[in-house]
Write a structure and sequence with these properties.
By secondary structure, the chain is mainly α. It has 6 helices and no strands. α3 packs antiparallel against α4, α4 packs antiparallel against α6 and α5 runs antiparallel to α6. Its main location: membrane. Keywords: Cell membrane, Membrane, Protein transport, Transmembrane, Transmembrane helix, Transport.
């Protein structure tokens, strides 16, 4: 049994290492993606679009530096729909928002899963370590106190590793979820203003 417990402990620490690498990879990929739709240039572009919708009878823009941002894609999609004078602008823009939402939430379930389960994996390592410690205590008796204490120390380290993975992962997931919510709310505002713009244009 002792051999199986030791194998289990090693697998737990291996799982923690793999989870850390995966979480770091997802975080870097997502931060690069989100940066395309965040920052001063994107906020400035959003302000210019809203101002033009309020003040100008016709709206066209050159592609700004942030041409890969969700705001740019949404604005140019809306302009194409209005330019073709298609019906159902509301539904078309809502579909575009959903498309952007899917992209923003891509891979976030990985962070959510790791954040929720890493502490339990660490706890499993702790349980295995405690089993190993009690087994050693029963086998070696009082003379094996050093071995028992080392086993308990390793067991607690597994819990610490689980929390060490889970805490930053949960923070990153919350950060991306908040940024996604803000960007999608701005797209909802743009949708309403484009619909109002089209209605006013049709009245003229």
């Amino acid at each position: 049994m002792q051999d199986f417990v030791e194998i289990g402990e090693n697998l737990v620490f291996l799982a923690m290492t793999i989870a850390s690498v995966i979480a770091l990879g997802v975080f870097l990929e997502r931060i690069l993606y989100y940066r395309k739709s965040m920052g001063k240039l994107n906020d400035q572009f959003l302000t210019e679009v809203r101002h033009a919708l309020h003040e100008k009878p016709e709206v066209t823009w050159e592609a700004p530096l942030t041409h890969t941002s969700s705001y740019w894609r949404f604005v140019h999609f809306a302009l194409r729909q209005i330019g073709m004078n298609r019906k159902g602008l509301d539904e078309s823009l809502e579909g575009q928002i959903i498309s952007e939402k899917i992209e923003f939430e891509k891979r976030l379930p990985i962070l959510n899963t790791l954040g929720n389960n890493a502490p339990f994996i660490g706890l499993l390592g702790t349980v295995l370590g405690v089993i190993k410690a009690f087994y050693g205590l029963g086998t070696l008796g009082a003379s094996g106190a050093d071995v028992v204490m080392r086993s308990i120390s390793t067991a607690l380290l597994a819990t610490a590793a689980g929390l060490g993975v889970a805490i930053p992962v949960v923070m990153a997931n919350n950060y991306f979820s908040r940024k996604s919510k803000v960007i999608l709310q701005n797209l909802e505002i743009l949708k309403k203003e484009f619909i109002a713009f089209q209605m006013n244009k049709n009245k003229v």
